[in-house]
Automatic annotation (TrEMBL):
It catalyses: S-hexadecanoyl-N-acetylcysteamine + H2O = N-acetylcysteamine + hexadecanoate + H(+). It is an enzyme of class 3 (hydrolase). Its EC number is 3.1.2.2. Belongs to the palmitoyl-protein thioesterase family. Keywords: Glycoprotein, Hydrolase, Lysosome, Signal. This is palmitoyl-CoA hydrolase. The keyword Glycoprotein applies. Catalyzes the cleavage of thioester bonds from S-palmitoyl-CoA or S-palmitoyl-N-acetylcysteamine (unbranched structures) but does not have activity against palmitoylcysteine or palmitoylated proteins, branched structures or bulky head groups. Conversely, hydrolyzes both long and short chain fatty acyl-CoA substrate.
Length: 295
């Protein structure tokens, strides 16, 4: 009898313990995919998280898949927020958010524009956080035989802004037009000169409130240009990459980068020999740059 009772107690404790780990152990993780991808492309990353932190609730958003990923980013944001909001509300201790490639730019937008967000770690996996100026297969697919030098003519128009890439196209030779037309990146960076645009102070404080900002990128990415954009760098007029800490965006603490940095909440993780299409599959990258920030 007493042995059975002990066994039943043990079972009860196991159940309670597992529940406790689930409730208090690991925060839910939300993952947003990149251009031309879908949730399945992130299944390896989900599996790595599950292996490292069993019981973690992982939400890989299956929205704007494939060609739909070219939809304007504000439009994507309004739909995605309807999914992430309830996840955040339910997670009393907060969530972690991982954005891969363009998904990181969406994640950035969610955080800056959501006053009640409870994102603890925001992990951007080779995301063009400060814009893109480079030929990529995606652009070649969209606009065959166009050189990057010419693309501003298309992207910096009202029509070009109907494509997600146009929303964060940052041509260093046409910054005036960038500020006039870029409806997403220029707005989030407080660089927009569009009529009636005024940068809400909350877009800074919401970002500065992050527990950790983790910026992952590397020189062998091959797609994000400059690759330093993954860490908020961008090209200057001479097409030389300028790192984040030398930019006004950082210096004037426009979105809280300096605050996060001084507070040791900004982490850069630079990895060589990783091509753009491998960031979310590379286990070394996961162990070095992602896993430490998911507790
Ligand atoms: C978001 O959810 C609200 C409330 O359910 C709904 O009214 C709204 O249309 C949704 N927006 C989008 C873009 O799906
Ligand atoms: C700016 O705001 C004014 C007043 O609300 C409005 O009449 C005008 O159409 C707006 N301009 C643009 C470009 O949205
Ligand atoms: C945003 O830009 C405007 C105009 O340049 C400036 O007045 C304001 O202080 C800026 N806000 C932040 C948070 O940097
Ligand atoms: C994985 O990433 C490491 C650096 O973190 C790199 O040295 C290695 O070549 C990468 N492997 C693949 C298959 O991308």
């Amino acid at each position: 009898m007493s042995r059975m009772k002990a066994f039943a107690m043990l079972q009860l404790w196991t159940v309670l313990l597992l529940q406790a780990v689930k409730t208090y152990g690991y925060k839910p993780v939300i993952i947003i995919h990149g251009i031309l991808d879908d949730a399945r492309d992130l299944s390896e990353l989900g599996a790595y998280i599950e292996k490292a932190h069993p019981g973690t609730e992982v939400h890989t958003l299956d929205l704007f898949d494939h060609y739909y990923s070219f939809k304007p980013l504000w439009e994507q944001l309004s739909v995605i927020k309807n999914i992430t909001d309830p996840i955040m509300k339910k997670a009393k201790n907060g969530v972690h958010l991982i954005g891969y490639s363009q998904g990181g730019l969406i994640g950035r937008g969610i955080i800056q524009t959501t006053d009640h967000h409870n994102v603890d770690s925001f992990i951007a996996l080779s995301s063009p956080l400060n814009g893109q100026f480079g030929d990529t297969s995606f652009i070649n697919w969209l606009l065959p035989s166009k050189l990057k030098e010419d693309l501003y003519r298309f992207f910096y128009t009202n029509y070009g802004q109907l494509f997600s890439i146009g929303n964060y196209w940052k041509d260093p030779h046409h910054s005036k037009q960038y500020r006039k037309y870029s409806s997403y990146l220029a707005a989030l960076n407080n660089e927009s000169v569009q009529d009636n645009f005024s940068f809400p102070p909350s877009w800074r404080s919401n970002f500065a409130r992050l527990g950790k900002l983790v910026l992952i990128g590397g020189p062998d990415d091959g797609v994000i240009a400059p690759w330093q954009s993954a860490q908020f760098g961008c090209f200057n007029r001479n097409e030389k990459p300028v790192e984040m800490r030398k930019l006004r965006l950082y210096h004037d603490d426009v979105i809280g980068l300096k605050t996060l940095d001084k507070d040791n909440r900004l982490k850069e993780c630079t990895q060589s020999n990783v091509h753009h299409t491998h960031w979310h599959r590379n286990y070394t990258v996961f162990l070095n740059c992602i896993e430490p920030w998911l507790t």
